[in-house]
Design goal:
By secondary structure, the chain is an alpha/beta fold. The strands form two sheets. It has a seven-stranded parallel sheet with strand order 3-2-1-4-5-6-7, sandwiched between helices. Strands 10-9-8-11-12-13 form a six-stranded parallel sheet, with helices on both faces. It folds into two domains: about 180 residues, Rossmann fold (3-Layer(aba) Sandwich); about 160 residues, Rossmann fold (3-Layer(aba) Sandwich), CATH 3.40.50.2000.
Length: about 375
C-alpha cells in the first residue's frame, strides 16, 4: 500500500488562473500537504490568482514557461525534475500532458495525465496528432468523470490506465446560511465567458422566463472572458440590462453569490464535472443544467435539480419556471443536493481518491 505522506510529487500546471481545474489543484495540494507529501509545482505561467495562496502553503512554485518553444519548455521541465527527482510527475491540464509524459519517460519517473473536460472536446481542441498523443501518452490518466473515462476508452485508452479523480468541494466554505425569503428570484450562472459555456443561451432563457413570469426575476452572470462584449450586446438587444441581468465579472470568492441566489443554471455544450455545480449544491441551491459530460453523475434529475438537452431552451425555461413557482421544491432539491455532495464530493473524500490514483501510478 502506498503511503502518500512519504511520496515526492511534482505537479505540472498550464495556468494558475481562476478556473475549476486550478481550484481542484489547490484542494489536492492542501490535502497532500496535510499528509506530509513533499510537493513542488511547475507552471507555464506566473503571477496568476492561485500562485500566492499555493506559495503560502509552503509549496515551491517554479516558472517553466520562459520560452514559447515547446522544446525549450520541455528542457526546463526535465532540468527541474532531475534536480529534485520525484516519484510522480502529475499534469493538471490536458495540454500539459505531453510535457509530463516525455519528461517522466526520459527520467523514468511515473507520470499522470489529466482530463478536465469530457475527453472528446480536449482532443478536438488540439491538432489531430497532439490531441491523440496527449490522450494516449501518459502512463496513467486521471479523469474527473465517468463520462470522460468512457470517451477515453472509446478513443483507444486502455481502461486499466484511467482512474477516476472526482472533483470535490469544501462544504464548510460553500454552505447555505438560511432559507431564502420570498420576493425577487435570483438565477445565477458562473463560468468563463467562452463558447463552451453558452452564456448566450443563458441570456435567451432568462429573457423567456421574464416574459412568462409575473414576479421579479434577476439573472446574474459571474465570470469574464473573450465573449463578454458580445454577450453584453445581446443582453441590450433583449432588453435585459440593467434591470433583469447583471454582469458581475470575475469574483475572487463566489460563496456569497451562491447564498444570495435561488437557482443555479448551467448552459454548457460540453463539460467534465463542473466545480460550479458542486459548489451550488453544497450551498443548498437547486440546479438546472444541460445534461452533458459528467453533469448527470452529480445532478439527479427530479431529486436535486433538472437536466435538459443542450438544444432544448424551452425545456430549460419550463424547469426554471417550475422551481420559481414552487419554493418548497427549491428547498427540497437544495437539501438533497447538499446531502449528495457531503456523501460523495466533500473535501474529506479526497485522500481516498488520491490514494487509489497513486497506487495505480506506482503499481
Amino acid at each position: 500500500m502506498v503511503e502518500i505522506g512519504k511520496l515526492k510529487v511534482c505537479f505540472l500546471a498550464g495556468t494558475l488562473g481562476q478556473g475549476g481545474a486550478e481550484r481542484q489543484l489547490v484542494y489536492i495540494l492542501k490535502t497532500l500537504r496535510e499528509h506530509g507529501t513533499k510537493l513542488r509545482l511547475l507552471c507555464l505561467t506566473r503571477g496568476e490568482f492561485w500562485e500566492r495562496p499555493i506559495r503560502e502553503l509552503g509549496i515551491p512554485v517554479i516558472w517553466v514557461g520562459q520560452s514559447a518553444s515547446r522544446a525549450a519548455r520541455l528542457a526546463r521541465i526535465v532540468k527541474e525534475l532531475r534536480e529534485e527527482r520525484p516519484e510522480i510527475v502529475q499534469s493538471q491540464h490536458f495540454y500539459t500532458n505531453l510535457y509530463a509524459t516525455v519528461a517522466g519517460q526520459l527520467l523514468r519517473i511515473r507520470e499522470i495525465g489529466a482530463m478536465r473536460n469530457d475527453g472528446l472536446s480536449e482532443v478536438r481542441s488540439h491538432n489531430a496528432l497532439l490531441g491523440r498523443l496527449s490522450l494516449l501518452g501518459p502512463r496513467i490518466m486521471a479523469a474527473n468523470s465517468q463520462a470522460a473515462i468512457r470517451n477515453a476508452v472509446a478513443l483507444g485508452v486502455a481502461s486499466r490506465r484511467v482512474c477516476l479523480l472526482p472533483n470535490v468541494v469544501d462544504p464548510d466554505h460553500f454552505k447555505p446560511i438560511r432559507p431564502r425569503s420570498a420576493g425577487l428570484l435570483q438565477i445565477v450562472t458562473i463560468g468563463r465567458l467562452v463558447d463552451q459555456k453558452r452564456m448566450d443561451r443563458f441570456l435567451s432563457v432568462v429573457a423567456r422566463v421574464k416574459e412568462q413570469f409575473d414576479g421579479e426575476v434577476k439573472g446574474v452572470i459571474v465570470g469574464d472572458g473573450p465573449e463578454r462584449v458580445r454577450l453584453e450586446r445581446q443582453a441590450i438587444q433583449l432588453g435585459l440590462v440593467p434591470e433583469v441581468v447583471e454582469f458581475r465579472g470575475s469574483v475572487s470568492d463566489t460563496a456569497p453569490l451562491y447564498r444570495q441566489a435561488d437557482i443555479f443554471v448551467l448552459t454548457s455544450d460540453w463539460e467534465g464535472m463542473p466545480n460550479v455545480i458542486l459548489e451550488a449544491m453544497a450551498s443548498g441551491l437547486p440546479v438546472v443544467a444541460t445534461g452533458v459530460g459528467g453533469v448527470p453523475e452529480i445532478v439527479r434529475h427530479g431529486e436535486t435539480g433538472f437536466l435538459v438537452d443542450p438544444g432544448d431552451e424551452g425545456g430549460m425555461v419550463d424547469a426554471i419556471l417550475t422551481l420559481i413557482k414552487d419554493r418548497d421544491l427549491r428547498l427540497q432539491f437544495g437539501r438533497a443536493g447538499r446531502e449528495f455532495v457531503l456523501a460523495h464530493h466533500s473535501l474529506d473524500k479526497l485522500p481516498g481518491y488520491l490514494q487509489k490514483l497513486y497506487e495505480l501510478a506506482l503499481a
